Amino acid sequence: MQKFLDAFHDEAGKLSVDDPATGRIIAKVKTYSPGEIDPIIDAAWAGQSVWARRPAKDRASILRNWFNLVMANQAELAQLITAECGKPIAESMGEVAYGAAFIDWFAEEGRRAYGETVPSMAPDKRVLTIKQPVGTCAAITPWNFPVAMVTRKVAPALAAGCSIIVKPAEATPLSALALEQLAVEAGVPSAIFRVTPATDPAPIGKLFCSDTRIRKLSFTGSTAVGKKLMEQAAQNVMKVSLELGGNAPFIVFDDADLDAAVEGAIASKFRNAGQTCVCANRFLVQDGIAEEFVSKLSARVADLQVGAGREDGVQIGPLINRAGFSKVQSLVDDAVAKGAKIATGGARASNGDNFYQPTVLTGVTSDMTIASKEIFGPVAPVISFHDETEAIRIANDTPFGLAAYFYARDVGRVWRVMEALEFGMVGVNDGVISTEVAPFGGIKQSGLGREGSRHGLDEYLELKYALMSGL
Ligand code: SIN
Fold it and tell me: 159 and 259: one domain?
């Protein structure tokens, strides 16, 4: 990790990066104002057509070098993630592998950006399509996956022949800067992928949406900010991909394998201390098995080890900052004031200011704020339901539609519920759905577009139709 800190620490840098476990500053980094980003856009714009003209095979081999370098630096990158974002080191190692997998995947997919020939409507005409890079792109990435959310956007952009400028989250610029350094080492021309940390994100978002040299914006973050960016991007009818907030239901039916459901619940809810947009946010449990499920879940949750992410055996790290902590505490307080019961946890953990105890709440009802707000913390609220119709009604009763999970064994029920859930991604008898091979994304107010899979490449390609006539 030290080699990256030495490379990016700038004593005069305006952005201080701190360790959420201790509050101590780990580095200061150089930031970019909109005026300083202007020449960076110029270079990215000028270089893009050169990059796009290189054979897809060359771009793929450079991406493959980048993948190898990221994996060769897995331990150092993981330490960097843990230092700036707080997650346990085992999760950070997993994030580096997850993030690198997008580079590997898109290195291959970029070689298969096929067009098509279409059976013609006239004897002297031919109809065909080709796919071409969108152009220069911009991305705004979140703090909860400082590596994977960068590679999930940058790898398809580069594979497609685009250039891209990334504004990383204020809390976690170091991992993004490290990825940029490794990309250049791998052979990506420096103008083609730039990382521009900033202290104030709003003017950068505005610049990305108003500069006509930028043809696409990809954003992962809150629905409120996503709506603002979409409004700004509308001025230039710019392409946008938005991966926004969720309110994931995790439904346990009475025919479920309860032990598997408890393990799935732990995996889904407590990943990154509950700070992912696909974390289970509401546990809907059928009334006949609710008591047994809560007792098994609470026993597992009470056993989770809380501590600084760098310490051995830690499973739950700190929340990202004081604001994140206060939000979680106030959601729990509101639920308890309205009648919810704490089965385990429910308070600050003794490890430090940003640590919250892994918590299970029972007797949660829809009038409690925790049932409708994204928690982004290690709290599992349990709501009970009577039958399949009621479960689906409660699950879909949200403006969000990112991820949903359910556990059931009856085959008919599995199909009915999977089809009825209004969410972009559904985990059936599984609590972890994220993988580079599948399309990640939401419906309703959870966003637009998909990342990962073959569909993730299309987000960075334009489809051109050509009519060849006079044959
Ligand atoms: C996110 O929380 O934004 C992404 C989570 C994932 O990729 O699993």
Answer: no
In whole angstroms, give the CA distance from residue 155 to residue 198: 22
What pTM, to 2 d.p., does this model score? 0.97
Asked whether residue 412 falls in the same domain as residue 369, the answer is yes
What is the 437 CA–ligand 1 centroid distance (Å)?
A: 14
Indicate which residue's Cα is closest to atom 3 of ligand 1. 277
CA–CA distance, 341 with 363 (Å, rounded to integer): 6
For residues 324 and 461, membership in a common domain is answered with no
Q: Using one digit for the tens of pLDDT, what is the confidence trace for 154-199?
A: 999 999 999 999 999 999 999 999 999 999 999 999 999 999 999 9
Same-domain status, 263 and 303: yes
Is 370 found in the same domain as 314?
A: yes
Phi-psi map region of 272: left, alpha, beta (phi>0 left; psi -120 to 50 alpha): left
- Find, among 278, 251, 241, the residue nearest to 403 by Cα: 278
Q: Is residue 277 annotated as a catalytic residue, yes or no?
A: yes
Domain that holds residue 378: 248-435
Using CA positions, which residue lies closest to atom 5 of ligand 1? 276
Residues, the chain: 471
Judgement on whether residues 417 and 347 belong to the same structural domain of the protein: yes
276 lines ligand 1 (CB under 6 A): yes
Q: What's the domain count of the chain?
A: 2
- Do 459 and 342 sit in the same domain of this protein? no
What's the pLDDT tens digit per position in 241-289?
Answer: 999 999 999 999 999 999 999 999 999 999 999 999 999 999 999 999 9
Q: How far is the CA of 56 from the centre of ligand 1 (A)?
A: 28
Q: Is the CB of 74 under 6 A from ligand 1?
A: no
Active-site annotation holds for 263: no
